[in-house]
Structures are given as C-alpha cells and as structure tokens.
Write the structure tokens for this entry.
Amino acid sequence: MHQGPDEKTVLQDVLEPGEPPVLAPGHDFGTVTDKITSIVLRRPLGIGWGTAAFIGFVLVNVLLMAVTYLFLKGVGIWGIDIPVAWGFAIVNFVWWVGIGHAGTLISAILLLLKQTWRNSINRFAEAMTLFAVACAGMFPLFHMGRPWLAYWMFPYPSSMGVWPQFRSPLVWDVFAVSTYATVSLIFWFVGLIPDIASLRDRARNPYTRITYGLLAMGWRGSARHWKRYQSVYLLLAGLATPLVLSVHTVVSFDFAVAQLPGWHTTIFPPYFVAGAIYSGFAMVLVLAIPIRHYYGVGDMITLRHLENSAKIMLATGLIVAYGYFMEIFMAFYGSNIYERSIVHTRWFGPYAPAYWSLILCNILLPQLLWIPRIRKSPKWQFILSLDILVGMWLERFVIIVTSLHRDFLPSSWGMYAGTRWDYATYLGTLGFFLFAFVLFIRVLPMITIFEIKALLPESEVHPAEVEA
Amino acid sequence: MKQTPVSPVYGLMAEFSDASSLLHASEKAYAAGYRQMDAYSPYPIEEIADAIGFPKTRVPLIVLVGGIMGGLSAFALQYWISAISYPEVIAGRPYNSWPAFVIPCFELTILFASLSGVFGMLALNGLPMPYHPVFNVERFTGASRDKFFLCIEAADPLFDRVDAEKFLASLSPDFITEVPH
Amino acid sequence: MDNGKQKKGEAVCPSKKGKLELVDVKQQLAAAKDGPQYWRSLEELSNTEEFQEMLHREFPRQASEWVDGGTSRRDFLKLMSASMALAGLSACVKQPLEPIVPYVRQPEEITLGKPLFFATAAVIAGYAVPVLAESHEGRPTKIEGNPQHPATLGGTDVMTQGSVLGMYDPDRSQTVMLDNDIRTWGGFVGALANPLAAQKAVQGAGLRLLSRSTTSPTLAAQIKQFLQTYPQAKWVQYDPAGRDNSRAGAKQSFGEYLDTQYNFEKADVILSLDGDFLSSGFPGFHKYARQFSARRSPDLKEKMIRFYAAESTPTNTGAKADHRIPVRAVEIEAFGRAVAAGLGVGGPATASSDWGEYASMIANDLQKHKGAAVVVVGEHQPPAVHALAHSMNAALGAVGNTVLYTEPVEAQPIDQTAALKELVAEMNAGKVDMIVVMGANPVYEAPADLDFVDAYKKVALRIHHGLYVDETGVISHWHIPATHYLEQWGDVRAFDGTITIQQPLIAPLYGGKNQYELVSALNGQGSTGAYELVRAYWQKQHTGADFEAWWRRAVHDGFIANSAAQVRNASAKGGVPAASGAADNSMEIIFRRDPMIYDGEFSNNGWLQEAPKPYTQLTWDNAILINPTTAHDMKIDTEDEVEINVNGRKVTGGIWRTPGHPKNSISVFLGYGRTRAGRVGNGPGFSAYQVRTSDKQGIATGVQLNKTGKQFLFATTQGFQNMDGRDIVRVATLEDFISDPNFAHEKTQAPVEGLTMFQPYDYSKEYKWGMAIDLNSCVGCKSCVVACVAENNIPVVGKDMVKRGRHMHWLRVDNYHEGSPDAPKTYTQPVPCQQCENAPCELVCPVGATVHSTEGLNDMVYNRCVGTRYCSNNCPYKVRRFNFLLFQDWTTPQWKMARNPDVSIRSRGVMEKCTYCVQRITHARINAEREDRKIRDGEFTTACAQACPADAIVFGDLNNASSRVAKLRAQQRNYGLLEELNNRPRTTYMAVVRNPNPELERAMDQRELATEHK
C-alpha cells in the first residue's frame, strides 16, 4: 500500500539509491506489533532455541563448579604466578567489557546522530551489552585473593574507619563499570516500557498479562507521558555517550597508570575504546545474523544494518591498527630500553604466535570488508566477526601476559599458561551470556516496536492545512 | 489523583485510525477551549503534545541538578576520605590527589543525572499506575498497537456529556466511547 | 576439626581391640583438670604402650602416602596434624632441668614477649658453628652468629640458619625401637648388659663403634675409656664429605696430621685450586668470608685483594674471583704444577692449551706478593694437590702469615675411608658381633663399592643412634633417637680448635638421648646425663681456681677463651710429590657436598631444600651440571634425563647446562635421592653415592652419559641469568674506579629531586630507615635468604609451586652471568623490597593495604589485603610474594612452636613482602623510648644483615649522618636499582669493583674473541 515515494520521504536521511532499506516494504503498525510480540507470546520454543538454551545451561553449571572450587582453594588453581599475577580473569574482564560497548553505543550515539536505522537492532544490542557487562563484572570478583572481602572496594563507613584508595585505577573501575551497568540497565528498561505495554495488551494468558502489566507500570501512551519520555530518553542518550567512551578509557587506565613497560602508554585510552566498539559490533553481528534468520525478522534487521555494522568494524579496526602501530613507533622513537625490549619480546618472544595471530585476526583479515561482495554477505560478516572476537581476546592476552612475563629485571622473568580451571571459567561465562540471551529473546521484544513504528511511512503526520 | 469523581464518567474517548486525524482533532479540541484532555498514541508524536497544550517538561532541569549534585558529592567524599578522615602517604603523592579524583567524580555525575532523570520522568508521569480509567475501554488496547485516541475528561470545566459527544462526533472519529471510572 | 582429627586418626590406626582410640585420648585429656595434673596425666598418657604404638604406627603409613605422590606437601602436613600425641606433647615446652645461662643480662625467668639469647653451637662436619639461639618463651626460633666467638666473628651459614627447623621436624624418630617395636631407654640399657659382657670376655674383639668425625673432647674421652675397657674394639669415623684428602696431603708434606688455616687479612693475592672457601660448609667459611670482604673494599686502592680461581664445579666462591679459570678437576693438579713451576717449585710442568700462559702470569703475580700470597685447595682435590699447595705456600713465604698450620682439631684424625673399608671387610668376615652406629648413616652414604648393606646385615647386633629412623636405622636392631644440638649439652671444637660449649634451649622434644649418654651407657655408667658428663670432664681439665665462675663464663660466652688449637711452624718437608700419571682425557665426574643440604644431613629440611642453590638457583633437586658447549656437542639439553655410567655403576638424573663449568666434565651434588629421610627429603634428586667408589670419592673419570629420552623438570627460581644489556649490576675495574670513582652513575641516573609536581613527604623528623648492600662484599652464599625465611615465618611451598613461579622468599639473591657461557663473569645481587619512597605498589592498591609509614617503610597490611595482586604487577623489582593457595601450615603443632611470635602468619589470598624486619625495629624503638633516647646505630639490624658472614648488608637510620649506612650511601659507588624510574628506593647497592690482572685480562679477552670467531 505504501510505495516508493513515501518511503523515500521517510528514510531520506539514511537511504541512498540502490541501498537496501532499513525496513522492508509491506509493514504497517499492526503487522509490526503482531510480528514482534508474537515471537514472545505465540511462537512455540522450538528445537533451535531448546538446543541453545541447553548448551547455555550446561556451561552455566560448568561456571558454578569452577567458581565453587576456586572459592574453596584460592586463585592458585589458575595459572597465574609471580611475575604474571594477572591472567585469564583480567583478559576476560577486559574482553567482556569491550563487547559490552556496542549496545549503548548503538542506542545512544546513533540515536543522537539520528541514525534511525539503529532502531531495529538497538534493543537486543542493549540486552547483549547488559549480559556482557554482567560476565565482565564477575571476573574482578573471582580474581581476588579474598573475594569475600570484595565490598572493601566500596566507600562504606567501616568500623576500622578505613576507606578505598582513590588513586588506584581499580577503584575507578568499580565506579566506572558499576555506573555503566546501572545506566545501561535503566536506559534499556526505559526503552522497554512502551513495548511491554504492547505485550500486556496482546497477552492472552492472564498471568502473562499481569506480569507484563506490572512491568509496564500502567503505560498508556499519553501524549504528556510521551513528551517527558522522549525528553529523558534523549538525555539518557546524551549522558550514556560520554559514559560509554569513559568506561574502556578507565579500564585502559588499569594498564596505562602502571609503570610496566608495555602498559605504561598514553595511546591506550583511545585505542581501547576503539577496540571495544570493534569487538562489540562483532558480537552484535554474531548474534543478529542467526537471529534474523531463525526468527525470520530479516525484513526488520535488514542487510543494511549488517552492512553498516561491518563498515563501523572496518573503521574502528583501522583505529586499533593505528594504536598498535603507535605503540611500536613510540618504543623505537623513544629511548626507553624496556619499552623497546617488550616490543621485541612480543615479536620474537615465547608468546610471538599469539601476537602475530592477533595481528592477522584484528588487522589483516578484516580488511576483506573493503570488498563490497564480502561486506554485504551475512556469511562472511559472521565469519569475520568471530575472527575479530578471537583477535580482540588475543590482544588483551598479549597486552597483559607478555608485558608481565618479562619486565624490568630479567631475574624475575617467568612464563604463564592457563590451567583447565582458567578455561572452565571462561567457557562458563560464555555459557552464562548465551543462556541469558536466549531467555531474553523469549520474554521481551527483541526489536523496539514503537521505534520501528516511527520508521513506517504512515507515522508521518500531515500538516493541518490539508483539510482547510 | 482525584479520589472522588465529580461525575460518574471519567471522560469521553474518540478513536482514530491514523496520527494525522488525531492531531487535527486535538488541535480543534484545544481551539474549542478544552484543556483537561489527553491524546493516546502507540508511538511518540511531537506535534500532539503541543496541540493539547503541553509544550514543555521539567525533566531536563531535574537531570541537570542531579548531575551537579553527583559530581560535587563525589569530590567531597574523596577529599574528605583521603585528606581528612584517613590521610595516608601513598606513593609520595599528596593527600589531595585531585587529578585522580576526577574519574569517580565524572562517573557519579553521570549516574546521579541518569537516575534522577528516569525517576523524575516516572514521578511526573505518575507512574507506576496499574489502574487508570482509560483501561476500562475495551478498544483501548489498540493504543499500544495501531489506534489513536483523544479523551476529553469530565474534569474539564467546559465538559458536558452531551456537548462533548457532539463535538467529538464533529471530528469524524471511528468510534466514540464513554470512559467510566 | 575434632571430627576430622578423629577420622584421620582412624585412618591412621584402624580401630582394633587394644589400640588406643583418639577419642579416648581426648577423654583422658578432658578429664585432666588443672596444670600440673594435666602434665602428669599427659605423661602417663604418652607412656602407655598403645599410645606409643599408635604414635609410631601412624607414621610409616602416612609416609607411604607421601611417597605415593598425589598428595601435596600441604595435605601431608595437614595429615600430620592428626597426630594427637604430638599435639599434646608439643604443647608442653619444658625448660631443661639444669641451670642454663642467658647470653645477655636478663632476668633468669622469662618475661613474655621478650626473647632470650643463649650461646650454643651447631655442628657441621664435626666442627662447631658457634651461635646465639633466640628463645621465645622457651622455644628456640632463630639462630644468630656469636659475634664474640673468634672462629666466626658473628657470621652464619645456610645450614646453621636452617638447623632450627630440623629440631621441630615431625619426622624425627620419637622412641627407642627394637626391630620397629617400641622399647624404652631403660630396656635398651638393660639389653646391652649381655652382649657387652660377652665382648668383655674377648676384649671387645667383635665390637665396633662407627661415628662421624668427632671433635668433642668429652666424647673423645668417653670413647677412650670405652676402648680401654674393650682393647680389641675399634672406633671408626666416616664423613662422606670428609677431609681424608687434606689429611693425606698433610701427611705427605709434614709426615703428620696438621690442620690448615688461612688468614686472608694479610693476603694481597689468593690463588684457589678448586678451593671454595667462600661457600657454606667449608671449615672456617664465616671467618674467611668476613676477612675476604674486608680486604675486598676498593677504597684500599691497590691494597685491595686480588683473587684467582682455577675452578671445576662453578661455585659462588669462583664467582667472586677477579679471574675465574674453568679447569677440569683432574687438571687442577696440572694447573697447580704449572703455577708451582713458575714459582720455582717442582719440575717443569706440561701446560694445557686451555690455560697455558695463564699459569705463568698468575705465578708472576704471586711472586710479586711474596709473603702476602696464599694458595687455597679444595677438599675434593687429591692429596697430591694439597701437598703441592703446602709446598707453594712455603715457597711464597705464606706460612705464618697467610697460612697457619695447627695441630689437628679432630679428636682422632684417621684415614676414614681406609678404616671404613677395614670395617666392612671385618663385617663380611663375620668378625663383628656388635656395632654401634652413632650419628652416621653409612647405608646411604658409604662408597658404593663397599656394599655396606650386605656387610652390615651380617652383624649380629646392630645399634643405630640418630635423629631419624634413616636408611641405616631401619635395618638396625636397635634404634636410639638422638637429640638435636638445641636440646643437648655438649662441647665441640670450632675449625680453629676453640672449645665451644653447647647448652640446651629446650628439653628434648621427642625424648631422645645424646651421644654422651649413649657412650656412657656403653661404658656401663647407666644413664648419666650429658650435663654431668661434660661438666665433670671440664672440671677435671680446669686447672685454675673457682671452676664455677670459669664454667659459668664459658657457658655464657659459648666458648672457652684462648682454647684454639696450637699453631705449629711446620714447613713442607715432603717436597713436591711426583706428578700422578698422565692427564686423563675421558669425561670426569665431580662429587661435591650440596651447598644447602650438605651431604644429606639436612635432606629433610624444607627451608634448605627450597633455598636456591648458589650459582644455579636450583631448588629441591640435585642436577648433573655440565658445560653448555659440551652439552651442545653431545646433543643433550637442560632438563634432559640422562644415565650417568661411572665404570659400570649407573644412576639417572636431570641435566643442567651450567655456564662456567669446565668442558668434558660433569658435577653432581651429594645428599639427594634419600629414601628414609622424611616426607620432605624422600624423593628429590638422585643419590650420587650410588656411583661414588671408595678410591674416587672426589673425582672419577671414564664417565659416559646416555640419554634416557625422558625429561626431568627442575624448579629454578631464576630462569634468566643475563642482564639483557640493562644497568642492573654496575661494574668497573679497580683502575677505572680510581680514575673515575663516579662510574656507577655514568650510564643511568635517578631524576633529580624536585622534578615532581608534588611536595614529597618530609622524613627528616623521625627515623629514616635505609639499607645499603655492598655487591663487592656479597659472596652469594644465601645465608640471608634462609635467615629471612626463619625470621619472618615464610612458608615452604614445595617443588611444584616453585616450578610455577610461586616461591615465597622475601629476599632473593639474583645471579647474573656476563660474557661467554664457557667462562662468564658472574655477579650476585641480593634483592629485598627496595622500600621505594614513591612506591609504585602503593599507588595501585584499591584498598590501601600497602601504605607508607612516617619512617619511610613500605608497610604491607595483611589484614587489609584483598589480593588483587596489582601491586606485584606494578613492582619493578618483583619482590612481592602472593599466597596463591593456603601455603602456611596452620595445623601441625611443631611448626606453631617453631614460628617467630613477632611476625604474623599470612593466610591464603594475601600479598606479602620484605618489611625491613619491622618487628625488630619496633623492639628497638620500644627499648629506646623506655630509656628516653634515640635508637643507636647498630643497636639492632635486620635478619639478613645479621646473618651475612661477609657483612655485605648494612641497615640503619639515614637521618643519622654518623650511621654506617648513611656513610656508605654517601659513597660514589652507591646507586639505586632502576633508580631512573624515580621510585626513590631506600635499599641501594654499592657497585662492584673488580681487581683484575691487566695482563691476564687481556689474554683472556683475546682468547674469548678467538673462540667467538671460531
């Protein structure tokens, strides 16, 4: 019913001729609502979902076992030692936090940039963010020697009158990550309110209706409500934007503030942030591509979304490459022999394979995205995204382990290798992530209904003089 | 809000099937002098809020105040802890290492601003409010799908059961319903 | 907890009828009310047959569990805690009954929290190492040197430092046993009657006494008496790492046994022919180290001592040499002859191509310093080399100046190997009916070719006396538990002959009888206590008036003044012995005492097992040390397992490529491969005794190495021993130092003060603690490391954890090689916490668990630590240690007693590190404040500084300009490690100054270049 011309007027800000639309033609308010809500309310669970949930559940139990043994015995069950006192735990922490960047970035920054195409992917990207941050948040707790005292990191009035030490980047982490988690959560939830209302109104089962009813808090789409809602939603976006940039900056301070050659670098904040977005979008694609296929929402998460994400990965990937290059350049440009030798160690030392494969994964392979055919093909996007996720993990491994294993005094040089408990914990969090995500797509609308509606041509209000 | 209804009905509700008609209806109703009214739509429409005479919101102010409070309290906390309550010689740094304190300040600014924003919005909207008269209308479930509603409330001084219905009918809605308490 | 104990208890002794259940024990203990009665009831308790049996039975089972592997050391000690008996007994710390004399003026009765010091003596290879033992509420916890004693001047060594742990060792044997059944001492004495009577009839023809080398006058007198009663009986002494060679050498030169002592105070030039006089265990090591380092100060300019070492097995002694020339042990003699020839001693010598011209250069230098030169020989070198050295020293006019010959300190110097051979022959011939093995462990340590075990088993009555039911004890009829030196009275002579009195700090922890009591029992004097015996002996000896005062003084000081052995002005009569045959070019094997566990005596000592051996930094194992080039040619690599074949006798061990080791030669340390040492000593390494024959106990040739194809993984604490071009140990030659005293700061400097934006904290008001370590004095013996372990309750973590880089030593001694792997220059550098003023660790701690004190200490607050380990990551010196698991043993009662009560025990998940012995600082501060004064310089010092025999570590208050440390830091040689990072370390180092012979230096460098080009 709504043909080309209308569409153009709606989407002109994003759609150049010849490019796939952000929303396939043939939808109206009703169909959009029904399609998205039915995934939650009507559709049976299905084999695919069952399998994914099962795998996730098993791995969650692996996590529980690993952590139980960890708390019984101590971090000695891991591969860490002196000098390499940080291992998988911190690598995974940084990796997960990085992944946790895409969601808020998409919903906040792209919203401010009026990139309306983000409307159909922001919801599950945000969910992904939350679960990733949850996974990340576990590791700092696990990696402590005495995890039961973790609350000492917070400024609470203790009977001893002692307080956290605010010069430590770890305390900054506590503030940054917890703030980020909280703000992402409320941002996500605020976005959900109108859609939960839709679910409430579609629900047939009274219990479901009551549950969603409570969550929707009596949202009724009043114009006054919408007005305040829009205003706070935009403001949140505005606040989340510097926040999302700050989080990985602060995480990078864990290393940049230290004196260790290979850590003590001013380039860290920008290239950590870029790397975070890099891996974040990779994860978005890894989730989006199967989902749109499995739930047939390809007409809302279109090739255009995928391609745009691919372009962002290409861009951030180049920033990351620049970061690597600057590190090396500075090592040789400056006169610090320790910096120089750490670069040398990364290239030719015992962990050189990790270094070179990260260069391959993060810098060389992604360049394939320059080729339109590959950039537009979901299959390739999927493969390259996985490749980038691996690469970014390796990057953190190289930064943390190679810098530690050979620092200032050769007398204390050592080696590091993860034990089976290290791997179990990492797998466990992957499982937790998967499990949480599959639950999410079954109980909440994975695409923002009301924002999709704003994309529809019929959402256009015609000026009043028409009927004059 | 109001506990004792002045009249048995909450208001009269007209249903439209597209945004533009709702917009025009709202404009006309405002022109006709109605103030106690509200429009309901499945997605935000800037113009309608203006049309029913609700051009501004105080949410941004709340956010600003929240943010400033967050920042100040963060610095106060850190300064008091590190320089007054429990000063320690750390790595040869001064007690008031303000450059290091900047980061928690920033984070708390954002946190306080966001929280006050969201809770401010909910408070002003009077949410959560599980019960509201408009839900008594059978067809109102459409408001979260694809229907648009204009409701003139009995609380409006101009409200008169008959005139209001006449007036709404003149807007050629799909339906007109009485909203009971 | 209790249930746990009970369960383990049951596991230990399956509940049968007649066995005592732990429940019962607990009930009996519960029944016991007030103090005295408690002891009484416990006394009864511990004497009941069942109880003893349970005690005894539990041990082998658990031991086997250990050997089965699987269980870690930790689990093991936990199992041990099941031993209710030990828990009960060790709870009662009893003062010895006899009056003992506190070292310093202290109230006789103990004031809680105030340690007392008692002078006594450890015994190593028969020689006394005089010590002051620190006693907390009657529990000896720490060993310090006795500064008044002429033989040591206050220094200690690793074994002495570790010895205190040996006293508490739960593996020590705890009851008299006959064929592994519990007996009593009374029972033993009774049982002696008949066999002795029988021997009396034949004048003791079938009676033999086997002991280690003995210097104790009292014991010697007792044995003399014994031999008078049984004229036909024989007393055999055997020390596996003994001094047969030097004895024989002395006999060759002087026709009689004489002891050789050196005086390096008067020496300008030293030539060492494999003489490791700066290594723990060398008689006189403490004194020599002190003298050497004193003469090593570059401020003496050209009077600074010069040290040439021709060395086979690389030791920390050779590492101190200005010129270390790696020479095969069998060629040392040839080298010596070459030098001797240069001195006009002996005939012309055949010079090897390896060191051809070196010998003559060294000879010239020695000549130049006639009267102030000295030649030192290693114990394992054959008698000929010793004799040669005597002649050279005579030719150099060293005798009387740098070399002293004294009458033998040993009670009865003999050719021990010959005596042992004879004993074995007699046992095989069935001539021996009864043998008493006293303190020795011949089954383990006797030369392999003697087949001691078979011979020993032929003896009708075998009595073993020792601290452990060891390899010998287990195949003896009777086993008598011995006492530790901290538990007994005694008199021993130091290497210089000074009579040193032992007094007990604690009543024997596990019962046990000392050798005096044993011999007096043999003499039929029932069981007279050692106190009476020793005292009675000296009462006889003492000629002057007022024995009581004299005796009290002797016990108080720990030694009898001016009792050193008489000096003889002997000169080598024998002349230079003829060269012993042509050089043997087959591969050689060198048997050396282990630098940590000696000859196996300390195998079960966790502190010593875990202390990195000087030079190789290996722990928990002995390795086959081999030259890297040789290894490369033979296609074997570090950690390959190989089989050593010495003329048909085989043993397998792991390879360790060792820079500076001579080519075509391997070295092995003795003392490993124990099977009955205890749960720590069983297992590690291989027993070199298996390939050591009586005729070649020092060096053997004709060795073959065959790869087994397996790997043997070692646990080293320092994988990398080159400085990687970093300015870590700063070195200059004496010439350069004189021309440019500021050489240490040419390459890197600390940023000037005040560059920082911040106002630095003002430490000038109170004390400002600092430490200066003179790398020129440090001999790398590791005494400081073990002292630190003992002082600060540092846990033993075991080989696996060390391998994984989790050793806990707060103080480590780094070892750096420079130059070619065949003949490197080697430097040692002790690294404690540097106590940086701008400590990087503090900045990153999220909870403020490590903060600075107003005296500039980098305090570690264990209770506040949550274990993020960020501080360790940010420590440039990596001196922080983390409790990755529960390393500390919280259960075994003996360890509870052994610990220093002033230092808190760290639990799992907590970071720890050097504190500059803050507990000692606090003690001193309290005393000073009570007397309303400042702490005096030298009033106290840290454990490492106190233990250092070379006086290389100096600790004190930097605000006190007159303090030693302040003076040292004012010197230009003083530099901070990694000072360019602006951490402002409080620990600083005095750069190394070598004193090479320019001529020889040039020659050696050229050769090195030549080899590199090849």
Observations:
- The mean pLDDT of chain A is 85.
- Chain A is about 70% helix and 0% strand.
- Chain A touches chain C through 49 residues (CB under 8 Å).
- The CA atoms of residues 393 and 450 of chain A lie 36 Å apart.
